Target: Methyltransferase domain-containing protein
Amino acid sequence: MWRRTLKAAFGQPDATAHLLFLRDSQTVTRIHFLHAAAHLGVLAELKSPSGQEALASKLGITRSQQFGLFLKLGVSLGELADDAGTYRLKGRRAKALVGPNGNVLRALLDEQIEYHGSVYRELAEQLRGGPLGDYLSATAAVVAESSRIAEPVISSYVTDVVTGAGPTPRVLDIGCGSGVYLRAASQNAGATGQGIDMQPASVELTTKNLTDWGIGDRFHVTQGDIRKGASEADGPYDVVLLMNNIYYFAPEQRPALFETLRSLVKEGGTLTLVSMFHGTSPTALNLDLVLACTQGCYALVSPEELAPELRAAGFRNVTVDRLVARESLLGIRAS
Ligand SMILES: C[S@@+](CC[C@H](N)C(=O)[O-])C[C@H]1O[C@@H](n2cnc3c(N)ncnc32)[C@H](O)[C@@H]1O
Model:
């Protein structure tokens, strides 16, 4: 049988490419299955094994033929197991999607299928001069969640910077999103400070998180757009954070931004900026393209572009740190 399949494949003019496409299409099918299964609630329900009928009734599914095929597909992909009609989770990815970090992984799937999918569907029109995509508001929550994939590595970087800033540093987090990096700063027990975000939803989320994390008495958050100055900030600060948001600023807005940030950093203090930077990996270039195609976002920069801009704003020392191997996720410390 295999011999016949291989013979058929190698009978094609681009035999190897055919085989590669077949393999790639399985990856796409797996991603589609997991995305749909997470949204349907199938994965969450199958944390306890269940038969098809009971599962369908819990999830309000009425098309049993199609649902049966969907479950069989999950089994065929190795994401589900079928023990004589009782389904359970089997694959690592399926289990992780309903595990402790599942919300981040589900957001990563949503971001790729929905947001990136839209960019690629509309790319030809955009490249020929059509308007850039108005994706930002619809995808803000998903992107905020999916960017937490890098949280462990960035958090430990932030904790190191804030720990090195003395026993009682004051910290400002600009574009704080959910406030996760204020939590990292709070690992220095003497640290206090503030987050600023222009989105009311982020301010609300950070306020709630700071309370939930038990650090609401040391950190607070205010709404504000840093492009309009820093009137909300109660500076100067020992550490100013700009995490995963430099690509929201147009190149021509960056000099004014860096001057504002310089005015907020105490003499001897540090601006810490973390971002994916322009790179050559598929991950970096995909993000670069997606951002460049989104209204209100800009292509990724290189550290070589930013360093002179930071110096021009008055930062004398600029250090670049690579945060993960083989990817252009970098930290810049400017003082
Ligand atoms: C991708 S999220 C990153 C959030 C957080 N720093 C993190 O790394 O998890 C970018 C955040 O920056 C905020 N932001 C973008 N431009 C801003 C500006 N000009 N002033 C204040 N906040 C801004 C957005 O509202 C959003 O919450």
Observations:
- The pocket of S-adenosylmethionine is lined by residues 143-144, 147, 174-178, 180, 196-199, 202, 225-227, 243-245, 248 (CB under 6 Å).
- The chain has three domains: 2-97, 102-143, 148-334.
- The mean pLDDT is 94.
